[in-house]
Structures are given as structure tokens and as C-alpha cells.
Amino acid sequence: MSDLLTLSALSVLLVSFGVGIVVGLTGMGGGALMTPALIFLGVNPVAAVANDLVAASINKSVGAGVHWRRGSPNLRLAGLLMLGSVPFAFAGGFIVNSIGAAKEQQDFLTTAIGFALLFTALTYALRMYLQLRHVTAGNIISEDDPKVRVLPTVLVGAIGGLLVGITSVGSGSLIMVALLLIYPTLSAVRLVGTDLVQAVPLVLAAAIGHVFNEGVTWAVLIPLVLGGTPGTFLGARMAAWVSQSVIRRGIVIVLSLTGLKMLGVPPEWVGIIGAGLLLLGPLAWGFIRQHRGLPAFDNNAAAWRLPD
To answer: Which end of the chain is more exposed for a tag (fewer CB within 10 A), N or C?
Structure first.
């Protein structure tokens, strides 16, 4: 109990509350923001991944339950995704454990998470563009389920499961973008529900795999849950007041810079790249919006709330 009354536990609580607000505002960024934040707070990378996955399995279960009651998930799609994702997610902890000594595992995870963050930032940016393209195409919602493509769907689940099982990063970003590309006529509500339902066993399997090998650090896990749950609730309540497009572009920049930092890029270069993204990013996005026939800086025109 005394471990929960330390400055470190309070720091985890406050950071998880802040990350929860971002997740509630935009529906994205949970593992991609929380895992590197824990590492920067001094938590062992292996423990950071394990405890973040356990906390995520709790949080995602709540969202999935809501969508299940509404009847929105495409259960066949979710089942095929789980067929690929669950075994690979479960194997993630064992793969990390087989790397070697503790120092080698930490170095491997730091590098793997760095690349995963850059990949996640890229998929977030692609997802924003796909949503923008859908809106400018008329935002027509299909009432019919699309024809299921079995092999690509299982493959997407396997790749997403392996990425999450090793790093805890990318469950929503990679799989959501892949579903948008494979099933462009799937409505936003069913897309969200399908992703949430398949994400619960995915994250749970990854968490079990890591707990078997690493165990649970209660001084990290309890503040994660206690801070993240109210933060997510508050962020969801604030979502209507804040421009999600601006926040999502901010998340892409933060993920990119964090990934570069974890890969050992010198701080001065990280600063230069960050300044370039801050200055040129809005201009590039404005050009893309104009190309799609929208005002360059009307930040709310194409914002969907899709979860990670």
C-alpha cells in the first residue's frame, strides 16, 4: 500500500489522467502515448508494456460493452481479426522474454516502441486523410454489411496483434486504417464497434502473455486505472467543445518526436524536426483540404471520433 503513496505513483496517476483526457477527446492515442510516457517516468520498458496492456484491457472492455449493446459490431469481421490477432498478441510477451538478458530486452523494446510510434503516427495521418476523403465524397453510410475478405482480414489481425503484443502500441491505428482500406463502405459506427470488440481479446491476450513473463507492478497498474478512467470520461464530455482535428494533428507530431527520441536521434534534430512539423504541418494539411474542396483551416469539417 505504501508503494501507492509515492511521488512516482502520483506521477503515473497524473500522466494517465492526462492521456485519458486525450483518449476521451479523440478516441485515439492510448497505448501510443501511455507506454512511452511510463518509460520517460522511469518505469522499466518491459514493465511499462505489461502494465499498460493490463490497464488497456480493462478500459477497452467498457467501450466494447457499449457498442455490443447497440448492436453495431460486425461480429464476423471481429472474429476473423481475433483469429489472427489473439495468438500473435499472446506470443508478444514470450518473444520479448526470449531476447536475452534484462538489459537486452529493455534496449530491444525501446527501439521497437520507437519504430512503432513512428509507424503509428504515419497510420494516424493516413486515417485522417481517409476520413477527410470519405467526408468530401458525401459521407454515405451503407446499411449493408460488406463482403468479407477472409485472408486479408486475418492477416491484418495477425500483424496488429504482433505489434501490440510486443510494444502495446498500435492496436487501433493499424487495424482501423486497414479496415478503412479493405472495407471502405463499412459505416463509421460499425467500424468503431468492430474494432473495439476485437481489441478486447487482442489486448487481453497480449496482457496475459506479458504478465506470465513479467508479472504485474501494482504501484504502476493501479494509478494507471485510477487516473485513466476518469480522464477518459472527462475527455469524452469535453469532446464537443474542442477541435479534434487540431488535437489529432498534435498527436501525430508528439508520436513522431517521441519515436525519434526513443530511437536515439539527437535532441537538436528532434527540435528541428518538431519545429518543421509545427510550422509546415498545418500548411500541408490546409493544402490537402483545399484539394478536396474544403476550406483550408476549417478544423472541424471532417472530424470523426474513432477510438484506438
So the answer is: N
And the C-alpha cell for 1? 500500500
CA distance 259 to 111: 9
As a whole number of Å, the end-to-end CA separation of the chain is: 32
The SS3 call for residue 88 is helix
Q: What grid cell was written down for 28?
A: 485515439
Cα dist from 109 to 97, 129, 218, 299, whole Å: 11, 30, 21, 36
Q: pLDDT, tens digit, for every residue of 141-163?
A: 555 678 889 999 999 999 999 99
Measure Cα distances from 92 to 1, 50, 86, 105, 213 in Å. 30, 10, 10, 12, 10
Q: What is the pLDDT of residues 269-284, one digit of tens each?
A: 999 999 999 888 888 8
Q: How far apart are CA 38 and CA 139, in angstroms?
A: 38
pTM: 0.82
The b-or-e profile of 79-103 (16+ CB within 10 A means b, else e) is bbbbbbbbbbbbbbbebbeebeeee
Contacts of 26 (CB under 8 A, 6+ apart): 235, 239, 244, 247, 248, 251, 305
| The three grid cell numbers given for residue 281, joined into one nine-digit string | 504541418
Q: State how far the alpha carbon of 208 is from the alpha carbons of 32, 95, 124, in Å.
A: 19, 13, 27
Measured in degrees and rounded to the nearest 5, phi and psi for residue 66 equal -60, -45
pLDDT tens per residue across span 50-105:
999 988 887 767 656 655 666 577 889 999 999 999 999 999 999 999 998 889 99
Ramachandran class of 182: left when φ > 0, alpha when ψ lies in -120 to 50, beta otherwise:
alpha
The per-residue pLDDT for range 4-56, each reduced to its tens digit, is: 567 888 889 999 898 888 877 766 667 788 899 999 988 889 899 999 998 88
